[in-house]
Amino acid sequence: MSKKVVAVGDNCVDIYYTLNQFYPTGNAVDFAINLSQLGCEIALVSIKGNDIFGKSIENVLNKSGIDLSHFHKGDKQSAMAQMNLINGDRVHEQFFGNVLADFKLTEDDIEFIKKFDIVYSERWARIGRYIKDIKLQNQIWIHDFSKRLDETVNEGVLPYLDYAFYSYPQKDSYIEEFIKTKQQKTNNGVVIAMLGEDGSLAYDGSKYIHQKANKCNVVNTVGAGDSYIAGFTKGLSEEKGLPECMKMGTEVATKIIQIFNPYQLQTCN
């Protein structure tokens, strides 16, 4: 039986002012939607804005069958990224945290999270405030540090993690030493670097495992890491080994980077 998963973290919209369109997204949202599409039972703990964007994000999540019983409504605008499209590439110009600045877990949220087999979190969850009191011995904890390799707050989270993910542009000696060092700070866990065209590299405390990227026509790399972690987590939920989980992550990410917008861009009104 597949394990139950909960994602704790952000939701936002990417707004393309030049196209008059927006795109519901966010690390936790992308992870949850991709994992749900793989057939996993998943819930999202987050806070949405009090505007049309918040409602749009909620609609997308509902269509994906995600448990939104702990998807709270805040009293500020949705988090949003100002985006542009330049020569076919998506460019982040500016980010506004808005309602995410108020994201705090309630006691009910904490008890809810304890019911799940696998817990995913990312930056905006600021999970370091809670992880010591939440994590149960039999839970698998995953955190996506993304490109923030050496933020001070990372050190307070690593000791509780079973799987830590980072994003880095290529496979080199720096990232090899980096993930080895970070692995020693985890809960006897695994550290994985997602390396774009160089695939992904894991260190489990005794050896490195390298998974090559699949060759394909890359349309959009935004969300590649989130979808990789979703595929990887699908493997964990089925108790697959590390190489197979990495392969599953690669397969899902390969599909996503060939699509400009997997959730369909919506027109701003």
Automatic annotation (TrEMBL):
Every Carbohydrate kinase PfkB domain range: 21-258
Pfam family, any one: PfkB
GO molecular function per UniProt: kinase activity
Keyword Kinase: yes
Keywords per UniProt: Kinase, Transferase
Family listed: Belongs to the carbohydrate kinase PfkB family.
Protein name: Carbohydrate kinase PfkB domain-containing protein
